[in-house]
Amino acid sequence: MSIKGKCMCGLVKVExxxxxxxxxxxxxxxxxxWSACPVNGATLFKPDQVKILGNKQFLDKFSLSEGHDRKWCxxxxxxxxxxxxxxxxxxxxxxxxxxNFEFKPTAHFNYESTILPIKDGLPKFKDFPKDxxxxxxxxxx
Length: 141
Prior knowledge:
Layout: E1 2-6, E2 13-17, E3 22-26, H1 29-35, E4 40-45, E5 50-53, E6 59-62, E7 69-73, E8 79-84, E9 90-93, E10 107-109
Parallel strand pairs: 3-10
Antiparallel strand pairs: 1-2, 2-5, 3-4, 4-9, 6-7, 7-8, 8-9
């Protein structure tokens, strides 16, 4: 399966080989600030699944903390992905930029920081699951 996406203006394109290893909703302040939304839909892939196609000269990055490279198109400002390869071993391609893709989250991360409580029956981790280096503690809806 091949998934394609692009920034708002279409200059920076991404192609993904295969299905995501996880789809989650993140409520941390950093993700909220970066996405300018009350919650961020993260679609996580293995690094070798993700390719940037052409126009790489329009791709810029910002790192608030080491191991978390946030990348966007410097022409339109459209966010493309966050490269967590050196911290979590994954790349988060924003589900909202993917064409004909159904985003189906399976859990909430950093729910203790939420500013938009969501009652959807999904697990709500205080921070991260243990396999992501977190406490694994679940919170009530």
